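Recap from last week: sequence in, structure out.
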Amino acid sequence: MKKSLVTIAVASSVFMMSGCAGNNEPAPQKIVKTEKVERKVVYQKQTATKEEIKVQDESEIYNSLPHWVHNPDSVEDGVGAMGVAEKSKYRTVRDVIRIAQHDARVKLAKQVLVSINAEFNDALEEGITNDHINVEKAVKNNSQEIAKNVRLSGAKQINSFAAKDGNFYVHMKISNKIVKQGVKKGLRKLEQEMINSAQSDIAREEIKKNMNLIKNKVYSN
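Predicted structure tokens:
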């Protein structure tokens, strides 16, 4: 009996020691999952609008044009003009050149008239004709008809340029010599008309005298 009690006591002690040993183990820690957040900086690509691209392209094309496109009348010893043919898929190269040249001649005719009027104004500003024979007024009023005597077929193409947008430019010039010849011819025609309509020999002589003064003054250089 005594031996049994001892056995029970020993067993109890071993159990208690086992329990204590188990209680000394660290308590399980709570595992917290952490996620690494990667921040990405997205750079937005700047894109130009169609309108901005168009303006930029037009600006580049404009700046690439030769100086004579911007200043076609800046030529030596003559009158200049610029013609252009716009891009078209229906036009051949020959058509484009022909259209540009025609446009240049049309503009050249206008510039010739401007030049002639300037010459007349310079020649007549001093009042070189007699007051009772208004030859000056007749010359100024008929400057357009006089300009028609200038032979535009004598104009020459001196430059050409094909732009990036497909447009084709030509630069044409007519010499002062040809313009002067046409003006002289026109003045002679006007003089004859005025003489034919004059009422007296004195009037006719005055017309001739004053017309000669004008003809010698215009394009005298």
